[in-house]
């Protein structure tokens, strides 16, 4: 539910409709979920994220885009904290640490066979990107995923990879781009 509301941007009423419950119940569950989530976060790092839209945030996001679009997995891994996470809700896939994340990203790049394109947006007040993959033999790149970054100091401490692209319009992102 937090993913639907806070990350993908659905209104509480829309989430209630999807879950066949009331808006009041959704809001109550969201408050409890946020409190439980906050209680589990370590105190270390809570206040260490760069300010939104600051030069530090822009520099990290710019480096992220450059490495992803150039297929530079080693460069991307170098942007991560030692204990970074890559998660893919609602799938149970989760990778922690540079080696595990790098291994997953190398395998995913080999399976895709083409570099991804990123379009910046924001999700949950954090840097986020619509991720697009060229469709072979067409002039189109289709929406693949929404990537939301969590930053700590001058590094990326988490990448949340949402494969459900139905929420793209809520982020001002198109479902397809002309392939360059």
* Biggest beta sheet summary: 7 strands, mixed
What is the overall shape? globular
The portion of residues forming beta strands comes to 25-35%
Compressed to H and E, one letter per element, the order equals HHHHHEEHEEEEE
Q: What structural class do you assign from the helix and strand content?
A: alpha+beta
Which runs of at least 5 residues are low in confidence (pLDDT < 50)?
none
Written description of the protein model:
With 180 residues, the chain is of the alpha+beta class. It is 38% helix and 28% strand. It is built from 6 helices and 7 strands. Strands 1, 2, 3, 4, 5, 6 and 7 form a 7-stranded mixed sheet that branches. A hairpin with a 6-residue loop joins strand 1 and strand 2 (94-96). Helix 2 (12-19) packs across helix 3 (23-40).
Task: Give the key terms.
single chain, 180 residues, alpha+beta, seven-stranded mixed β-sheet, 38% helix, globular
Provide a concise account of the structure shown.
The chain is α+β, with helices and mostly antiparallel strands and 180 residues long. Helix content is 38%, strand content 28%.
Furnish the topology, listing elements before pairings:
Elements lengths: L1 H6 L4 H8 L3 H18 L14 H15 L3 H6 L1 E8 L6 E3 L1 H15 L4 E7 L2 E9 L5 E13 L2 E8 L13 E3 L2
Parallel strand pairs: 1-6
Antiparallel strand pairs: 1-2, 3-4, 4-5, 5-6, 5-7
């Amino acid at each position: 539910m937090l993913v639907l509301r806070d990350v993908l941007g659905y209104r509480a009423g829309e989430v209630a409709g999807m879950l066949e419950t009331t808006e009041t119940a959704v809001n109550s569950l969201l408050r409890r979920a946020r409190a439980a989530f906050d209680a589990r976060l370590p105190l270390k790092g809570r206040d260490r994220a760069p300010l939104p839209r600051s030069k530090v945030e822009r520099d990290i996001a710019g480096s992220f885009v450059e490495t992803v679009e150039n297929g530079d997995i080693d460069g991307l891994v170098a942007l991560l904290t030692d204990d970074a996470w890559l998660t893919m809700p609602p799938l149970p896939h989760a990778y922690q640490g540079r080696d595990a994340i790098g291994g997953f990203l190398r395998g995913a790049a080999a399976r895709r066979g083409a570099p991804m394109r990123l379009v910046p947006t924001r999700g949950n007040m954090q840097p986020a990107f619509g991720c697009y993959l060229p469709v072979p033999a067409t002039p189109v790149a289709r929406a693949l995923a929404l990537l939301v970054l969590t930053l700590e100091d001058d590094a990326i401490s988490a990448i949340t990879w949402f494969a459900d692209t139905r929420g793209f319009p809520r982020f001002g992102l198109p479902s397809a781009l002309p392939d360059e």
